[in-house]
Structures are given as C-alpha cells and as structure tokens.
Amino acid sequence: QITRAATWNVELEESIGRAIGMVAGKLDVHAALLPTINILPWLNWGRAQESYGEDPFFSGKMGAAVVNGVQHDQKVMATAKHFLANNIENTRWWVSAEMDEQTLHDVYLRAWGLVVAESSPELVMTSYNRVQGKWAFTDPKFINILRNDLGFDGSIMTDWFASWEAITGGMILGEIGKSSPFYATKGFIPSNSLYNAGIDMEMPMCSKNRDAICQAQTCAGDVEEDCRTLKHLDRVTDRILRSKQRYGLLTAMRNNTERITWDNSDFDRLILEAAQEGIVLLKNEDLLPKTQASVSRLAVLGSAEQLELGDHGSSAVKPSGRMVNVLEGLKEKYSGATVRMINEDLASPDVAAFVKSADLVVIDVGLNFTFEGEFIPPQTGGDRMYLTLHPQEEELIRQAAKLSSKVVVAITSGASIIVENFVDEVQAIL
Hints:
The structure is a single chain. The protein is built from 14 helices and 13 strands. It is α/β, with parallel strands linked by helices. The strands form 3 sheets. It has a 6-stranded mixed beta sheet, sandwiched between helices. A hairpin with a 2-residue loop joins β5 (130-131) and β6 (134-135). α2 (10-26) packs antiparallel against α11, α3 (56-70) runs parallel beside α5 and α9 (208-216) crosses α10. The two termini are 17 Å apart.
C-alpha cells in the first residue's frame, strides 16, 4: 500500500479498488479487508508498508478512493482499519497510544472522518492496541465518536484474536508477552464490554460476545448489566442485517460449483502502472535513464535474483499473474547486453574487472518479511530494529562504489531507509 501512496494518484487508487472488488465478487468474497488508514508517526513500525504514510488528510483521500473502488457496484464491502491509532507492532496487543484530545481529533481521527464522509465504508475493524489507556473495542467513547460524530453507519468488527485474553495478556507470545501489563491475569476484559462499546462482530478464537449472551439469558431486571446486553444485541443484529441487505447478502448464494476464471492481463497492466508511478527517485547524477544502446555490459549485485513480495502476515501476497524479479527485468530491458549476476567477492580480480568495465552497476538491496511486516511470533515480521540498510548491504555498496562511478542502488522496503552512509558514494538511488 505504501507504494500506491507514493503514486499520489487517487484515480489510480480507485481503479485498484475496483479491480479488488471485481475479483472478490467473482470469488464470492463479501468483504475486502482494506484499506489501512493508520497514521505512521514512528518509522520503525513493522506494518508501515500497509499504510499511506504519516499525513492524515492524504491517508483519508487515498483510503476513500480505494473504498469507493471496492464498493462501486455494492457487491463487496470494504473494511477500513485499524480503529484507532495502531502504529506499533511487537506490543500491539496491549500498548497504549497516549495523546491529548486535540491530537486525537486533529491527527488520528481526521483520516477516519474523510473516509467515512467521502466513501461510506460498510465495515470498520478496530485495532489491537489501547488508546488513552482503553481498548477501542471495549470503550464506548471511541465507537461513539466514530458513529455519532463522524457519521459511520455500517458494522464494526474486532481484529482477529483481539479480545482473547491469552493474546492481550501475552501468555502465548513468548518472551515479548511478559511486557504486557496484563501478563498471566484473567478477566480484565469483561464479557459484555464489546457489546457495550458498540462492537457488532467478534472475530475468531474469542468468546466475550458468546459469554455475554449466555449470561444475559438469566437477567432478572432492566438495571442489570446482563439485561443491557440483550438491548445491545438487538442493535447489533439490526446493523449486521442492514449491511448484508445493502450488499445483497440476504438472497440465495451463487452456485459455487463452476470454475471461476478471469483475464489477468488487465490487472497486470494496472499493477505495473502502480509500480512505475510508485517508484521514488532519490538521487540521479546524470546516470539514468540508460538506453538499451548505451549498455553493453551490466553488473548486477545484491538480492536481484529474489522476488520480494513483502509481508507474510495478513497482507501476504499470493501471486496470480506474471512475476519478474530485478535480474529478469534487467535482462529483458538490456537484452543485447552482457548481464552478469555477481554473487562472488568483489575482491576477486575477474569480478572487479567486470564491475569496473560495466556501463551500469545495479545493486538490489532492501528488507524482507523477516525484518519488517506483521509480527507473528516468534520470528516473522515485527518492528524494525534500525532504519538503515543491513550492514552487509551497505558494505557491498561501498565496495562497488570504489570500483565504478556508474552505480544505481535499488532499494525495496516498506518505509523510509536512511541513506546517509552511502548517498555521496553512488550516482543514483531509487
């Protein structure tokens, strides 16, 4: 998503939303779990690649565009997420985002106001984290703002496992779980708190709503908390049925025995357009672009043979179209040149000679799912430990720069990379 943000193109973002809605509709998928409109104030955030960046106005405009695209024919519901102030990963289940009321409204709620006003997402997903010490899925203050102040009239769900105390209490998260203030405790999320807060759907592995309904069966008077749950349940049922009715989900389902097919070529062109517009040129000292005729020898270093698809968590990508890694793309672009993938030590005389004589040296570097992305214990994703490239990649860049004055560094990452350690030694960075 951060690449699409770098296009600054709301029309393209709406087209991407339409494509998502089209495929989802063909597959009888009723809800698309996007967009993420969380604000990015902390650059180490592991899921920065799922955001539109740090600007609330821009995030709201781009989020509204993709929602309008997904929901354009009212067959697939978009899900704006994660409400509210979700911007840290490793301790996301219990960390509290602390802020004053002005910051809450001017920064963290502004994007939500724009998305609701300009696109009316049918669904909203709450966040794992607390805000001002309270979980958004258990405190009516935040849901009341969303519904009453911002005008949201769809259905609200929790995130997966959010109200499971084994998660929020850190009991099943290994060493990091011990930092939860609720570690090894029980009962800190009351059974009826989700209904009281205005939550309509509790996602898997959680039982607070079920427990609240069971307790409500024995209520003896209107003043009892258990009896209030029944009144909440009527409103919840109304909202969920209204969402289903709006999107035609109360009628007979389509026959799913037929094989579903579609032409990927249009989607491939759309993805390519987004990728091309989303590339950011950080530096260029009269080196790029290089025409095919101007390159007879091309040296390629780094991870160019790997296909980096990003996060392996809930935003994992399952490719369905044509896939091209950096090395393959360069070979296609410079088909008449000698393209050499260099995995050997640059100190080797033969390797050093080729790099020195090359008309272009491309170094592909960056981050993958082991260093950023959704944190899935024990070792997948998480918040970034530093904002530079990996030390071995910076060393590779410095070595190549000593041999050539035609070096392009191509960086793939989910958020900002500090380039000061090598920016003055290479001719181009993108």
